[in-house]
Amino acid sequence: MEHKAPWLALLGALVALFWALDYWKVFPGAILGVGFRRGRRQAWRTIARWVIFTFGLVSWGYLSYSMTQPRTAKSFSPSSKEVIDIILVVDVSRSMLAVDLTPNRLEVTKNQLRSFAKRRVTDRVGLVIFSEKVFTLMPLSNDPALLDKVIGDIDIGYLGSGTNIGDGLALGVARAAESETKNKVIVLLTDGVANVGNLTPLQAAAEAKNLGIKVYTIGVGTQSEAKMPVGRSVFGTQYQLIPGGSIDYKTLQEIAALTGGKFYPATDENALNRVFEEINQLEKTEIKVDNQVVYEEHYYRYFVIGLSLLLLVESLRRLLLREVA
Fold first, then answer.
1. How much is the pLDDT for 292?
2. Which residues on adjacent β-strands are paired with residue 226?
3. What is residue 195's three-state secondary structure?
4. Range among 22-36, 206-220, 291-305 rated most confident
5. What CA–CA distances, in Å, run from 158 to 140, 161, 199?
6. Architecture of the structural domain at 84-284
């Protein structure tokens, strides 16, 4: 027998104390001037009061015990779920504002990331962003609502102007390494070529391989010439042209091959959606989790007994002792 809320017995005991104080007229109350009050021997009245009081205490004992929610484990139901730790490593360099995807590369990426994250309800997902600098925007968490908000807040500009793929991937590897989960992957999204940083992308990938972490790489953007907004003038938004083929597909392919992951080119919104659909299928792993216990609840039995006794006691107080509530 176990008790789900043993501390609630104190609440029952407190109510029983107030009932006892009322019973012995510590608080003023009216008593009819007939019955045991006159014409009956005082000794019988005293005995009756103590007997009724004893039954009252027993009733409150049952009620207090029922409040602890006593129960016994009846059976164990083994369960399983699909779990994995996923670190999203996202490029937030200025070129992600290029408009070859509508409305731009960054917004399309964010929309697909949010959709992907919502489908990983049993998994923990973390988020690392990088440009010239790298930053952990969200550690591993299984809070889909929080992750959705954090992804929605991703913006350009506060991490510098370079593309630090190596250090960004290395930070993702470090965050994944902190997890004790057996199954963990990194999804790396970028639209450029590494041009700053302490580590090269392949050095970071080698560390991921050593730790058994798969890296899925996604090249975001088209192969054609793209326009990137650089400011506004009296003539409207000013753009800078980005040459076609500026995404380092070769390095992204090598990272994926080295770690046992896979490379995906995402040349439009539909392609990016297909990428995440495939990753969803590839990385679902079923594991056994703690058994779910099926309980037999007993509180209602004690509650019914206690309530019945209390109703009897209160009836005797009014009918036998002639007390008025």
1. 56
2. 242
3. coil
4. 206-220
5. 22, 9, 21
6. 3-Layer(aba) Sandwich (3.40)
Write down how long the chain is: 325
In a 10 Å sphere around its CB, with 0-12 CB exposed, 13-18 middle and 19+ buried, how is residue 189 labelled? Answer: buried
> Which residue ranges make up each domain of the chain?
2-74+292-319, 84-284
pLDDT tens column, 250-286? 999 999 999 999 999 998 888 788 778 877 776 655 5
Q: What is the mean pLDDT of residues 217-245?
A: 84
Bond prior to 103 in cis (omega within 30° of 0)? yes
Q: Is 136 within 8 Å of 127 (Cβ atoms)? A: yes
Tokens standing for residue 147: 């992750």
What is the pLDDT averaged over residues 195-200? Answer: 95
* The model scores a pTM over 0.85: no
Q: Could you tell me the end-to-end alpha-carbon distance of the chain, in angstroms, rounded to an integer?
A: 38
For residue 179, what is the DSSP state?
Answer: -
Element (H, E) at 7: none
Q: Taking residues 12-38, what's their average pLDDT?
A: 67
CA distance 251 to 230: 27
Which pair of structure tokens corresponds to residue 84? 């994995």
Half-sphere exposure of 175 (CA within 13 A, CB side): 28
Q: Where are the alpha helices (DSSP H) in 24-124?
A: 42-67, 105-118
Task: Name the token pair of 192.
Answer: 């450029």
Secondary structure of residue 145 in the 3-state scheme? helix
